[in-house]
């Protein structure tokens, strides 16, 4: 079923797409979509492979597949959402349900199932749209750039024998119990306690890199306007 969309005057509220669908064979594979088609399409020859601007609706198949499609066509390429808009198992039945997609002028969106929000966010983050800005390919990291903001102190050396200090030692205050029998109980050994001389794993102390701020810290190329964004 298709019909021509009459141009509407500009309104302050964001564009919304509402439609209701009833799936009598919800346990089997089926889908119900509404498509916003480009102007000038010959509706007498309309088919499933014809280009569209937006395709929206549920995709149901057996007990595993249950989600809502919201697909945008950008310069001839169909963009699917990076993460599917999942429906709950209880959402899939033979009853009539309403699906709603709202696209805001600020580039955000929200999808509803029976007026319950199922997904929302930013279009450029959840679909593979070109990003507004990209790294400048001509902005290269200088050869003398220093990435590290902290550097090891070259004067801080590990003391000799540092690794030979055990983390635990026998308790010097422990005594062998009077009723201890070496033949029955084995050779007595004092319980271990934390060694107060142990200083954990050696790590060299660090200090801030004295290089000028313009040549230190992580390098980030300049961002430039993406000419394929629109």
TrEMBL record:
Record's subcellular location: Endoplasmic reticulum lumen
Family classification: Belongs to the calreticulin family.
GO molecular function: calcium ion binding; carbohydrate binding; unfolded protein binding
GO CC term, one of those recorded: endoplasmic reticulum membrane
Disulfide bonds: 29-61
Name listed for the protein in its UniProt record: Calreticulin
Main location: endoplasmic reticulum
